[in-house]
Structure formats: C-alpha cells, structure tokens
Design brief:
The chain is α/β, with parallel strands linked by helices and 422 residues long. The protein folds into two domains: 23-81 and 219-420, Zn peptidases (Aminopeptidase, 3-Layer(aba) Sandwich), CATH 3.40.630; 86-213, Glucose Oxidase, domain 1. It has ten helices and 18 strands. Strands 1-10-14-11-15-18-16-17 form an eight-stranded mixed β-sheet, with helices on both faces. An eight-stranded mixed β-sheet has the order 3-2-9-5-6-7-8-4, with no helix packed on it. α1 packs across α10 (408-420), α2 packs parallel to α6 (261-279) and α8 crosses α10. It starts with a helix and ends with a helix. The mean pLDDT is 95. It binds zinc ion. The site of zinc ion (ZN) has 3 residues, from loops. Zinc ion binds at residues 263, 296, 394.
Length: 422
C-alpha cells in the first residue's frame, strides 16, 4: 500500500509539474501574440518589445548572462522592407481585407493613387517567349494598375519562378489573382513594382480600382538575439543549446497583424518553460538558451550568432532548435536526424519506452530554420517541429486559439528526459 501511494504521489506531482509548465507555455504564447507585440515584426519596432519580454523572463528564471551578451542581448542590424501604415485595395465596389483577401509581395515598393482608375487586364498565357515578355513589360506605365492573369503559366513556359518574373517589372501596380493559399514573408530587398496577390475566391468583378500601399525600407533595422544560460552540475564548459526564433512577419499595413502563434511564439514559450524547468533542476551539462531574431528574413539571427558566438562553438555538445510547437497529434519530425543518428536514436528510444508520441520522424538536413547555420559551422544540431493542426502558416490565421497544444507536454517530457540523460 505504501509503495503504491508513493508511486501515485509521484505520478500526480509529475502531472502537476507539466500542467504548470503547459499553463505557462499557453500564457506566454498569448502574450507574444498580443496586439501590442505587433506580430513581432518591424513596424513600430514591435519585435524589440518581444526581446525585452524574453529578457525579463530569463531574469525572473535566474538565467546567467554571457559577457558577449550583456543584459542577455546580442545586437545586430539588417535591412528590411516594411509596410507601416496605409494598405488599401478596392476593386469594383468591394474593399478587400488585407491579410485575409490579399497580401502584398514583401519586396514591393509603395504605390499612391488619388483617384479611382481603371485596371487593365493582361493575359500572360498569350506571351510566347522571353522576347515577347520583355517587349510587353516596356508597355507598362508608372501609376497604372494591371491585373496579371496566368502568371504561373508564363513562369512555367519561360522556366522561371513567378517571383523572379516580377523583379524586372517597371514601377506600377500589379494585381495577381492567386489560387494557392496566401502565404506572406519578409524581404530584405525591394523591387520597383507594387504587387498584390488576391485570393481568386475573393476577386470581385469590376475594373475600377483604388490602391494605396505605404512602404518604408529600413536599411539598418536593429535586432536582438536574447541569450542566457544555466551552469551544469558536472560539465559546466560543455553546453546543450536550445534555440527558437521569436521574430515573425509583423504587420502588413495598419490593420493586418500576423501573430505567428505556431511560428514561433510556441517554440519561444516552450524554451522559456524549459529554462524554468532546468533552473530548478540543473542537468550535468550547461544549458544555453538563444531566442533568435531575423529568422523569417533568412535565418539572419542564427547566422549572426554563428559568426559572433558568445562562447566557442566547439563547446556545444548538441544544439536543439524548436520551431512550430503547437500540436504534436501526429508526433514530431527531427531535421538533421540523418546526420545526428545517435541523438535521434536516443530520442526514439525514450519516446518508445515512455510511450509519449505517435511518431518521431527522421529527416535529412534542410535550410528551413535556425539550426542550419550551426550545422554549416560544424555544430551538432537538430531541429524539432511538431506535426498536427490546421496548416495555418505565415498567414493572419496563425493565432493561439487555432492550436490545440495536443501532445506538446509529451514533447516537453521527451526533451527534459533526453537532456537529463546526457
Ligand atoms: Zn516562419
């Protein structure tokens, strides 16, 4: 009886600990997705608010700072194109909703229009070759609005990407009807054209249009990686590093916010919870936490870190990057698992013996998140993402309420057990 009671208490207390961790993760995701955090992008420097929030969490948790990142901050800059205010599109009688019905190409220049004008339809499926495409572009006039139909057909015919075809377009506004899901991004460069992708299901009839897009290119947008650590009890000079990017796409005009709940408020919150967990129970190896920025602009924070590490990269025993951690109903995928076979096998074994997740999948390395610059520098690294949910990605629907957090506590247990076994 006594023994059973003891085991019961142990199980109940473990469940309570993880319930606490989960509550903290959910609360933190909500905070990071709040309106005042502006999608952790570049308009009104809102990602800086997120950086300060993360630093406060580190401080409360008691993480130590490195000399190279005083007050947890490693600062750097990069160029970025932004859409800080006006973003209007009216076609026919219909005012379209930014983010939901259309997105601006992130490389776009601004466009101003005082009076409604006529949109000219251009059927690109009639353009036969590169010469004809070059000739056609010469006819586009500044200040005018064109609807480019069948851009994908032309791209296929010329063996080029649709995105690259838009680079040479002269300054004017181009409406591109799109059948695929609207997926936004961040650009570090600008093209002369203003390009609006309109969901074909939202494309109204009518030719009269009003377009106003306010754009601002920031040459040196200040950014911060947020870095702290917990010293290990036995091998203090050797580090397990946990990374997660906290930046997202920010705002597209004054109204549309891309909250990035799954991408990657979830991973940021998950790592902050791991920091709290290990602060109370330090493992044998030191654990460093790097909340990176600039990921959506091209892994720029992790690239900068690799070039300016705050302790030698050789001291990293293993780096684990978390990006997209809101629903693990279908398990997790581990990128670079092929190259890090031993770590992958250990994680799989723990998963089987503790019966945590339905699948732990292995994937070859790919430049799809912040682990990548580290692997290029020879650092042993894994990238873990969760599989599940409705597929909202880089759109205005990636909100906390859309994600179940199903099986995320199991991923938490898998990683804490794995790190404790090192
Ligand atoms: Zn992303």
């Amino acid at each position: 009886m006594k023994r059973i009671a003891f085991i019961l208490i142990l199980i109940v207390s473990t469940v309570q600990v993880f319930a606490q961790d989960m509550n903290y993760i959910k609360r933190t995701i909500n905070t990071l997705c709040g309106t005042s955090f502006g999608g952790r992008g570049y308009v009104h420097n809102s990602r800086d608010k997120a950086a300060r929030f993360i630093a406060r969490q580190y401080a409360e948790t008691g993480l130590r700072t490195f000399a190279g990142a005083p007050e947890y901050f490693q600062e750097y800059t990069f160029p970025v194109n932004t859409f800080p205010n006006r973003m209007d599109l009216v076609i026919g009688k219909k005012t379209l909703e930014a983010g939901a019905a259309y997105i601006v190409d992130a490389r776009s220049s601004g466009f101003r229009m005082d009076e409604r004008s006529k949109m000219q339809r251009v059927n690109l499926s009639r353009v036969k070759d590169t010469a004809a495409w070059t000739k056609l572009q010469a006819d586009f006039k500044p200040g005018k609005v064109y609807c480019l139909q069948h851009l994908d057909t032309l791209a296929k015919r010329l063996h080029r990407s649709a995105a690259s075809l838009l680079e040479s377009l002269p300054a004017a506004c181009y409406i591109v009807p799109q059948h695929a899901k609207l997926t936004w991004t961040v650009s570090t460069g600008v093209i002369p054209a203003t390009v609006l992708y309109v969901a074909d299901t939202a494309m109204p009839r009518g030719r009269k249009v009003t377009v106003n897009v306010e754009q601002k290119f920031l040459q040196d947008a200040p950014s911060k990686n947020v870095i702290g650590y917990i010293p290990g009890t036995e091998f203090a000079d050797s580090f397990i590093v946990l990374t997660a990017h906290y930046d997202h796409l920010g705002k597209m005009g004054a109204r549309a916010i891309f909250p990035g709940a799954n991408d990657n408020a979830s991973g940021t919150a998950f790592n902050l919870a791991l920091a709290k967990y290990f602060a109370g129970k330090p493992p044998r190896y030191s654990v460093a936490f790097i909340a990176t920025s600039g990921e959506e602009a091209g892994l720029l924070g992790s690239q900068y870190y690799v070039q300016h590490p705050v302790f030698p990269l050789e001291q990293i025993k293993l780096l684990i990057n978390i990006d997209l951690m809101s629903d693990a109903s279908d398990g997790i995928t581990i990128v670079n698992a092929v190259q890090q076979r031993r770590a992958f096998d250990t994680l799989s074994r723990i998963n089987r013996s503790m019966q945590l997740l339905s699948a732990v999948k292995s994937r070859d390395n790919a430049p799809n998140s912040d682990h990548f610059p580290f692997t290029q520098a020879g650092v042993p690294a894994l990238f873990i993402y969760a599989n599940g949910g409705k597929g909202y990605y880089h759109d205005v629907f990636d909100k906390p309420k859309e994600w179940s957090m199903n099986r995320v506590p199991e991923v938490f247990r898998l990683l804490t057990t794995f790190i404790e076994q090192q």
